[in-house]
Amino acid sequence: MTDFLFHKVSDEEKAEIQRQAKEIMDKFSERMSKVKAKISESLIERKDFEREEKKDIANAFPPNSRPDFAINNKIAKVKTLAHPEKNSHLKERNQAIHLKEKEDFRRRILENAPNKNKDFIIAEKKSWK
Amino acid sequence: MLQIKTRILSSLRKNPGNKMTTLQNLQKYLDKIRREDKKINAFLQLRDEEELIEEAKKIDEKISKKSAGKLAGKVIAVKANINVKGLNISCASKTLENYKGTYDASVIKKIKEEDGLIIGITNMDEFACGSSGENSAFGPTRNPINNQLITGGSSSGSAAAVSAGFCDFTLGSDTGGSIRNPASHCGVVGVKPSYGSVSRYGLIDLSMSLDQIGPFAKNVEDAAILLDVIYGKDEYDSISESGKINLKEIEKTPKNLTIGVVNFKIQDKRIQEIVDRKIQEAVKKYKWDVKKINMKYVDLMVETYYPLVYVEFFSGTRKFDGRRYGMKIENSAGVEVLRRILGGSEITKAEHHGRYYNKSLKVRKLVTEEFTKAFKKVDCIIIPTVPKLPHKIGEKITVEEMYSYDTLTIPSNLTGNCSLSIPAGKIQGIPVGMQIICDKFQDTKMLQIARSFEKLS
Predict the structure, then answer these.
(1) Distance, in angstroms, between A96 CA and closest chain B CA?
(2) Is B154 annotated as catalytic?
(3) What is the C-alpha separation between B38 and B393, in angstroms, rounded?
(4) Are B203 and B240 within 8 A, CB to CB?
(5) When you count CB atoms within 10 A of the terminal residue's CB, does the N or C end of chain A come out lower?
(6) B222: Cα separation from own chain's centroid
(7) pLDDT for A40-89, tens place per residue?
(8) Nearest beta carbon to residue B397 from set A1, A6, A39
């Protein structure tokens, strides 16, 4: 019997928790052993268990000709043709937003790190908390 | 357009003549939180008030220009394991006490795009490891219905915040019942959507093959509105699938429905009686059918679930090494988190015999097959959400007793089915929840059935 309120755990208590946890898992495993239904070893459902290797699948589409690339390129071209000036303005604005977000993300990541210098998270072997 | 219309209709019906602006709504909630949250402890962090007021004004401006999103005017709180940029996403643990979200989870992005106002971060069981809401490193959450009792967990603060009237909606996460269990004890609606229907990108995982983000609300319609916003495919979560919630359908009462009831006994007979009465009432009014179904493995839910959670949680927490953020988890976490990490480590070492994780996966497959078979005969399965009433905060119970709170909610996580908990009645003033389970990606149908039950009262 135990209460579940949060408290700091001592090393002795940790050892006891580990022993208890293993005991619970053993008990659960034993109970599951009573299931007699046959279950196949493989948990992945496939009709055939060996796939036929295809030749050079990565190069099945030449560069920039994969369907998604083709569609994206087409959209980009149409946009550029329609408003060339507006498009370059948009590009600059997007770049500025992207840079700001990147800098913001970097700042937050470094803020979260316990040990750092100006540009790096310090994580030498055996020196972390 | 249709969805916006549904929102407006819903709000008007619940609160006729309600002409509150976002700002007024926010101030109402802030006042209530200031007055009452000291005794409930639902919130771990409230956003800066000036920032909130500024944002509320902007939303009101959008509303007046008729360009606001589906959640405009609504105030939302978020469980402390879902990343919100700049807020303290501590998972209610000393390990991440000072950690600030570096990005918005996909669900948060969607809420912000629809002009939902995020008010703050809610309390929870540490790293979602718990069924009572007691093992938060920042103090237990108290049940707003009876402050002596647990709220249930792990999304304790999210359930309590809605129950206490601190906001319109909240988000929680559900791995084995962490949304439905506290929803039941706190008398609110809690939804666990189908696995893969809501993006988990940005959720600090407990067990990645089981976790799902979902909403809490005061009623089914409100829960559906938030679920509609967060539902669907997200390129950042590879298991997410496209789909949508049809809000118009939810008001319709389904015809020729067959309810499945499971043939087994739960600890507290009174809870089963409340749920049975509700079913009878609905069957009589809507002329639905009831079919009894046998579930062979229902007694093995806890045994199947916990080895999966122990192993996946152990693996998922290796990133908390005290280098990139926070402290090393083994040196800073509480008892239940350590039990799962140390137990997970032990059984991972012994797994070459296939005694634990592999065995659980096999039983999980059997349970899934059993449910698939059942859903060929019935439209939904209705059972109590929790098999017993909540205990007093700090009361001593065994680990297995604690784990058994989730007996009836675990199946939907193992199978990936959708399920929700709605209030069904009370025993000595304590709310009792009823769980409606539907097949995978039948979330709209599930909400429709729940709404039909809600209309009975």
Answers:
(1) 18
(2) yes
(3) 16
(4) no
(5) N
(6) 14
(7) 665 556 666 666 666 655 555 555 555 555 555 555 555 555 666 667 88
(8) A1
Helices B301-316 and B357-377: angle between axes, nearest 10 degrees:
130
Residue with tokens 């990645």: B208
Domain spans of chain B?
Answer: 2-250, 258-298+364-442, 302-353
- CATH architecture of the domain B2-250 equals Alpha-Beta Complex (3.90)
Return the H-helix or E-strand segment holding B353.
Answer: none
Chain A residues close to B326, C-beta within 8 Å: 112, 114
**Hey, of B324, B357, B404, which one would you mutate to test binding to chain A, going by the most A CBs within 10 A of its CB?**
B324
Please count the residues of chain B: 457
- Bridge partners of B203, per DSSP, are B82
Contact B360 A32 (CB under 8 A): yes
Identity of the amino acid at B50: E
For B373-426, how does the pLDDT look when each residue is reduced to its tens digit (9 = 90+)? 999 999 999 999 999 999 999 999 999 999 999 999 999 999 999 999 999 999
Count of CB pairs separated by less than 8 Å, A with B: 144
| Angstrom distance (rounded) from CA B115 to CA B109 | 10
Nearest alpha carbon to residue B405 among B121, B98, B150: B150
Cα(B357)–Cα(B351) distance, integer angstroms: 7
- The ipTM value here is 0.88
- A66-81 burial by CB neighbour count: b if 16+ within 10 A, else e? eeeeeeeeeeeeeeee
Give A-chain residues touching B334 at CB under 8 angstroms. 6-9
**Collapsed DSSP state (helix, strand, coil) of residue B324:** coil
CB contacts, 8 Å: B90 with chain A: none
Q: Taken in order A11, A16, A17, A19, is the CA torsion positive or negative? A: positive
Query: CB distance A32–B394 less than 8 Å?
Result: no
Helical spans, DSSP H, in B242-300: 247-250, 269-286
CA nearest neighbour of A25 among B303, B252, B446: B303
Strand blocks (E) in B317-409: 380-384
Distance between A21 CA and the closest CA of chain B, angstroms: 5
Answer for the pair B175, B309: CB distance below 8 angstroms, yes or no.
yes
Closest CA to B405 of B305, B311, B308: B305
